[in-house]
Write a structure and sequence with these properties.
- This protein is of the alpha+beta class.
- It has a single domain, classed as Phosphatidylinositol 3-kinase Catalytic Subunit, Chain A, domain 1 (Ubiquitin-like (UB roll)).
- The chain is 24% helix and 24% strand.
- It contains three helices and four strands; from the N terminus they run H-E-E-H-E-H-E.
- It has helices at 3-6, 35-45, 70-77, and strands at residues 8-15, 26-30, 55-58, 83-88.
- A four-stranded mixed sheet has the order 2-1-4-3.
- The N and C termini lie far apart (38 Å).
- The relative contact order is 0.28.
- Residues 1-5 have low confidence and may be disordered.
- It comes from Oikopleura dioica (Tunicate).
- GO terms for molecular function: Atg8-family ligase activity.
- Belongs to the ATG12 family.
């Protein structure tokens, strides 16, 4: 494996509740990127209004802090070599 491949991890985005489903839901992100990057991406991709929020969940239970590195979340919570991140426009769990 090349060094750049080792620095990236696969994440899978899954819509919950009223959140729109994305056409593309699998991404490879750099391990050092923060989960805030995912939140910002989802705000744009789902056309959130300024007053709307995106809620992110890992394991359908806990919401990571926005400064959590993708690599750390992946190392602690990935299954089948993917980090599954559920997203919603309203609080869904926990």
């Amino acid at each position: 494996m090349s060094e750049s491949t080792q620095e990236k991890v696969e994440i899978l985005l899954r819509a919950v509740g009223d959140a729109p489903v994305l056409k593309k839901n699998k991404f490879k992100l750099n391990r050092t990127q923060k989960i805030a990057f995912v939140s910002d991406f989802l705000r744009k991709a789902t056309k959130c209004e300024d007053e709307e929020r995106i809620f992110l969940y890992i394991h359908q239970a806990f919401s990571p802090t926005m400064d959590s590195p993708i690599g750390t979340l992946f190392d602690n919570h990935a299954s089948d070599n993917k980090l599954v991140v559920h997203y919603s426009k309203t609080p869904a769990w926990g």
